[in-house]
Each structure stands twice: as structure tokens, then as C-alpha cells.
Specification:
- The chain has three domains: about 200 residues, HUPs (Rossmann fold); about 130 residues, Beta Complex (Methionyl-trna Synthetase, domain 2); about 130 residues, Isoleucyl-tRNA Synthetase, Domain 1 (Orthogonal Bundle).
- The protein is about 40% helix and about 15% strand.
- The chain has 16 helices and 20 strands.
- The longest helix is centred in the C-terminal third of the chain and has 26 residues.
């Protein structure tokens, strides 16, 4: 990029993993405002630095939430997964999430999961434990995760099994208070003992403690508080197998006949598999061994993006699973965790139909508008709120109207100068360098914040518009600063940046401010998708009819 000196370590490969979406429905706006947009912005930033990046995820088909939702909808889990996976992939693509797609959950996937777990078994890392599990007496079903609901034993909030969305603490086995079946709340619930295989997290306490001491400043405070709370007490065993009723991957161990692998432990080998699959789809040489890109000697920078409610799983459980493989795998550099994004004052809820699906919003609003507003209001450190009225008003006030006014002022300013070069001043170059530095700081992992990036862009856009309209800026300075600002906003405003680049505007996030710039026009922003035949609208309709209903 124009001979710009790269920062140290900039050629290090990066693997970015967004939380694996459960295929029990399409993604809603709350999902998109969390890990998927944030991970995409970080991936695009690293690519702008010249870093090799794989940004990926895959559906977690084995989750009990698929079974519970399928039962409510009176369809098979297989049919629900098929429909939801297509919808999720279409929504990610329509949102401009720069993944290679969602990999198939096929025999190669299952073999990757089984190999990952069998290696722990063969090296003696697993233990056989007898545990007490909730049991639906009438249906004869063991209840865990999405199959059971009750009260959290730590904060008393309503919670499903596994972990509490409110406080983030795990509730293992029989710890959930007043359990009842999510599929049939009238089914009496008792308890039965079962011998299962577990990975004792306590065995890795020292290494876990050292890991978090070294990386605490890269975690957001709420998630780090939860990690410290968990490390302050006895660490739970990680279930490796559970009596699962036939949905999921069959456990291959003689000690646990008829059981399945606990769905949550698939996320780590699933991420390894997704990385391998995505490498091939990106045109890179696909490794012979699926886990090669995660090997410690490859020294990849691994970063997870997920919600606070998954802090225990992605931050502690999956980390322990990697550590249990000795020094085989690289450990994540950081977990970037978001809080909940509310819809008109309360949490998005599929069961209450209190949601706006990403596909619905993107069929009406351009994705640059959606990306800008979701970035600006991202729930990074506390819950934030989405309303459609706010999206319309804020994007018009802080993005569309000032951008188009700036573009119009620049067009008038350069009239008659097409193809000419305009000189910049030292003051203009200094301002451009400051803006570039502020935006880059918002994208660096240690200080990552899409909200701050969007806020910086909006503030600087207002400043440039005022300069253009009052005539206080040198023409060359104004063009340089506008070009620098758009280069810095390119990871968020992907379509605007693409249009400008296609028109010949140089967008280099690392370029030193130039002493002269060519005269150029800026593309205008449209506020709405005008035609139902637009590419985005067409993409969002490619969801197959549901088949396989019970």
C-alpha cells in the first residue's frame, strides 16, 4: 500500500471466529448487532493492513434448541436446520459479512469433532462421573440446555439449562431450580443418575489463571468480572457425553453406550473445521490435516466474537478444551464480548415474536445504513436499544444528509478541475493524520470499538461538511480529509467505499497524507432500497420452502 511501513507483526495470519449460530431460525437484528458485524469490521480492518484473514463460523446443528424449536413448530429437526441454515447464510451475505459461507455439517465435520474428543480420551484427560440429571417422566427424556427451563441458582433469573443469560454462570446437571420441560411443561420432572464422561476444568486452574492474568486488559469489564467470579470458586466439570435421545453426534466410548457428545463441546472442533473449510473457499491451499491452521507452530492470532451470555462457553469451556490438548493448539488472543441489544426496551425474543429479522430490515433499508446504525449503537459495554424510528432518524441526520451535502459541496468545489491535482497544506495533512489515527485506534484489538469508530466518523463528517459549506478549507485539504475519512470508515460503510474505489478514489487506511490529491467526486448515499427486484431483496428471498414436516 504505497510503500507504507507496516506495523510489527502485520503479516501474522488471523483466524476470527463469530459465535456459532443455532439453526432454529433466521438471525435477528440483535444477532447482527453483536458478534457478526463486529467480527466483520475487525476482519476487514486486518485485511486493509495486508494481513491474511480467515473469518468464519458454522451452524451448531446438535444444539437442543433445535430440538425444542422443531417440536414447537411441529417439524423435524433436520427440516428446521435445513431451512434455518439457508436463511442465516442469506442474512449474513446480505449484511455484507465477509465470510466464505457456512460450511456443511457433513461426515468431515463429524469426524473432526470425534477426532478432537477421542484424542482427549486416548490421552487420559477424561473422567467417568455419575451425575444427577433432570428427567421428564412421561416422555422419558433427560433434560439439559434448551430442553429444560427453571431458575438460575446464582441470580434466580429465569434460565435454561447450561448457563444463565442474565448472570452468565453455568448451572450444571441438577443445579437449575424448579426445572421443567420446555417441550411439555406439564410433563413431571424428576431426577435420574447417569454415568457420563467429563473433562475436569479444575485440572487446568493454574494455566487458566495465568492465561487470564496475561490478557485481562483485552477483555471487556463485565465478561472479565464473570471470569474472575468463576475462578474464585470450584471450577465445574465439562460434560463430554450426555444421554441425548438420538439428536447429535453419537459418543464413541464404551463407558457411555447410547449417549451423545455434549453439544457445546462441538464449538471448538467446529471452529477448527470451519477454518479449514474456509481456507479452501478463499482460494488458499487447503491443509491436508483439518486442524493444521490451529496448530501452535502456525502462530495464528485467534479472536472470538460472541455475546456475554456465551462468556462461560467460549471464554472458559472452549479454552480448557484447547489446553487439554497440551501444546498442540494456539490459544485465543482475546474474546470480544457484547451485551444484549434490546428491541424497543426489551430483549429480542423468538418465542414471543418480539424481534426484527435481519432479512426483514435489509429488504427495506440499505445495508450501509444498517451497518452504520448498528455499529453506532452497538451493545459493547452495556445493553443498548434498537427502534426503527431511531434508525431512520439517526442515519438521515448523521450519515445520509451530511454525506450527500459534503459530496455536493465537493462537486461544486472541483468544477472545472477534473483530472487536475490539488495541493494540500501541512495543517490539512496533520488533521488527516489525526483522523486516521483515531479510526485505527477504534479497530485495534486492545481498544476495539465499532461504536467509537462510527461515532468518530459521524463527528468528522459533520466537521468536513461545515468546512466545505463555509469555505474555510483549502480544496486539496478537504479532498484529502474526505478520502482519509472514507478509508477509515470502509470496514463499516462497505458499499460506499466500494463505489468510491470503483470510481478511482484512493482508499488506503495506512497511506501517509499526500502533498497533493487528484480532484474526485464522492458517490451519493441512497436511503432506501427502492425496488423489490434489487440484488439485496432478491438474495433474501432465496429461502427454500420448509419440507419434512412431522
Amino acid at each position: 500500500m504505497s510503500g507504507t511501513e507496516r506495523s510489527a507483526g502485520s503479516t501474522r495470519p488471523a483466524i476470527i471466529i463469530a459465535a456459532t449460530p443455532t439453526p432454529n431460525g433466521d438471525l435477528h437484528v440483535g444477532h447482527l448487532a453483536g458478534p457478526y458485524l463486529a467480527g466483520d469490521v475487525y476482519a476487514r480492518y486486518l485485511r486493509a493492513l495486508g494481513r491474511p484473514v480467515i473469518y468464519t463460523t458454522c451452524t451448531d446443528d446438535s444444539q437442543t434448541y433445535v430440538v425444542a424449536t422443531a417440536a414447537r413448530q411441529a417439524v423435524t429437526p433436520q427440516a428446521l436446520c435445513q431451512r434455518s441454515t439457508v436463511a442465516i447464510e442469506n442474512s449474513l451475505s446480505a449484511m455484507g459479512i465477509s465470510m466464505a459461507g457456512l460450511p456443511p455439517i457433513d461426515d468431515r465435520y463429524r469426524q473432526t469433532v470425534l477426532s478432537f474428543v477421542t484424542r482427549l480420551y486416548d490421552t487420559g484427560r477424561l473422567r467417568l462421573r455419575t451425575v444427577r440429571l433432570p428427567y421428564a417422566e412421561r416422555s422419558g427424556t433427560y433434560l439439559f440446555d434448551g430442553l429444560v427451563t427453571g431458575a438460575c441458582p446464582v441470580c434466580l433469573a429465569g434460565s435454561c439449562g447450561g448457563t444463565c443469560e442474565s448472570c452468565g454462570h453455568p448451572n450444571s446437571y441438577d443445579e437449575l431450580l424448579e426445572p421443567r420441560s420446555t417441550i411439555d411443561p406439564t410433563d413431571p420432572v424428576g431426577y435420574r443418575e447417569q454415568a457420563i464422561l467429563v473433562l475436569p476444568m479444575e485440572d487446568y486452574r493454574q494455566r487458566l489463571t495465568e492465561y487470564f492474568e496475561a490478557r485481562a486488559d483485552r477483555w471487556r469489564p463485565h465478561s472479565m468480572q464473570l471470569i474472575r467470579e468463576l475462578l474464585a470458586g470450584s471450577l465445574p466439570d465439562i460434560p463430554i457425553t450426555v444421554p441425548g435421545g438420538g439428536w447429535g453426534i453419537e459418543a464413541p466410548f464404551a463407558e457411555t453406550p447410547g449417549q451423545i457428545l455434549y453439544p457445546w463441546i462441538e464449538a471448538m472442533p467446529a471452529s477448527i473445521y470451519s477454518t479449514w473449510w474456509a481456507a479452501g473457499r478463499q482460494g488458499e491451499p487447503q491443509p491436508v490435516e483439518v486442524d493444521e491452521l490451529w496448530r501452535a507452530e502456525r502462530d495464528a492470532e485467534v479472536v472470538y466474537f460472541h455475546g456475554f451470555d456465551n462468556t462461560y462457553h467460549w471464554g472458559l469451556m472452549d479454552l480448557t478444551l484447547l489446553m487439554a490438548h497440551g501444546e498442540r493448539y494456539v490459544l485465543p488472543e482475546s474474546n470480544v464480548c457484547n451485551e444484549f441489544y434490546d428491541l424497543e426496551g426489551s430483549k429480542f425474543s423468538t418465542s414471543r415474536n418480539h424481534l426484527i429479522r435481519g432479512s426483514e430490515l435489509l429488504a427495506e433499508v440499505t445495508r450501509d445504513e444498517v451497518r452504520f446504525f448498528l455499529a453506532l449503537t452497538a451493545p459493547e459495554y452495556q445493553r443498548t436499544n434498537f427502534t426503527r424510528q431511531a434508525l431512520d432518524e439517526v442515519t438521515e441526520l448523521r450519515l445520509i444528509e451530511p454525506w450527500n451535502a459534503l459530496a455536493e459541496a465537493i462537486s461544486l468545489l472541483i468544477a472545472g478541475r477534473a483530472g487536475g491535482m490539488l495541493a494540500t497544506t501541512p495543517a490539512g495533512r496533520a488533521r488527516a493524520a489525526l483522523v486516521q489515527a483515531r479510526l485505527r485506534a477504534a479497530y485495534e484489538l486492545d481498544t476495539f470499538s465499532v461504536a467509537r469508530a462510527a461515532e468518530t466518523f459521524a463527528d468528522q463528517l459533520a466537521r468536513l461538511r461545515a468546512m466545505a459549506e463555509d469555505g474555510s478549507a483549502e480544496p486539496g485539504d478537504l479532498l484529502l480529509e474526505a478520502r482519509t475519512l472514507l478509508a477509515g470508515a470502509a470496514p463499516i460503510l462497505i458499499d460506499l467505499a466500494e463505489q468510491a474505489g470503483a470510481a478511482g478514489v484512493q482508499l488506503d487506511l495506512l497511506a501517509e497524507p499526500a502533498t497533493e490529491v487528484p480532484a474526485f467526486e464522492l458517490p451519493r448515499l441512497a436511503s432506501r432500497i427502492e425496488s423489490p427486484d434489487s440484488p439485496t431483496a432478491e438474495l433474501l428471498t432465496r429461502t427454500p420452502a420448509l419440507d419434512g414436516a412431522v
